[in-house]
């Protein structure tokens, strides 16, 4: 989830098989025509790819059902907002671009980030997103090393220790996404199905 929030969305393949970022909507962008409803297959594939890159293994990934249980657990703990929705095929196609009837629904990414920072990082925005954190309305493009404006090092100034060079401690969110969930526990599968079509 941390990586997803930093990227502003998850990675999925488009109609011609090219991997691209599927941006999540902010809360003010959500309406009857568009929503943060996604095909479970796409989110699971992104999760598997993430684990391959960060752990050289997909052993924790499990299947879509396992990921659904982990997301449901985070929802119960108040770390995220997650719902499984049963949607008619036409609406599902409109929202996700895919065939199916079961979608995973989330709040606006601005609300999700706020909950994540408050619950996982104790309200510390910089701790959540790093030293480069800026409020979204003040974000400026990152310049490349080749930029003419690249600041040359000044050797007459005292150099402060680099906080990033310290051996990193495990991220708080890792404990939630890699722990086992009892599938027989009441509500572990997030069985709050909505068979109506509210779109």
Write a structural description.
This protein is of the alpha+beta class. It has a domain of 123 residues. The chain has 7 helices and 5 strands. The strands form 2 sheets. It has a 3-stranded antiparallel beta sheet with strand order 3-5-4, sandwiched between helices. The chain has a two-stranded antiparallel ribbon with strand order 1-2. The longest helix has 16 residues. The protein starts with a helix and ends in a 22-residue tail after the last helix. About 17% of the residues have low confidence.
Set down the secondary structure blueprint.
Elements: H1 2-7, E1 9-13, E2 19-23, E3 37-38, H2 40-55, H3 64-76, E4 82-86, H4 89-96, E5 102-106, H5 109-120, H6 125-129, H7 174-177
Antiparallel strand pairs: 1-2, 3-5, 4-5
Strand count = 5
Strand portion: 5-15%
Cα end-to-end separation: 26 Å
Q: How would you characterize the largest beta sheet? A: 3 strands, antiparallel
Strand order of the largest sheet: 3-5-4
Shape: globular
**Mean pLDDT across all amino acids:** 76
Q: SS-based structural class?
A: alpha+beta
Q: What is the helix tally? A: 7
Radius of gyration: 19 Å
Roughly what percent helix?
A: 25-40%
- H/E series: HEEEHHEHEHHH
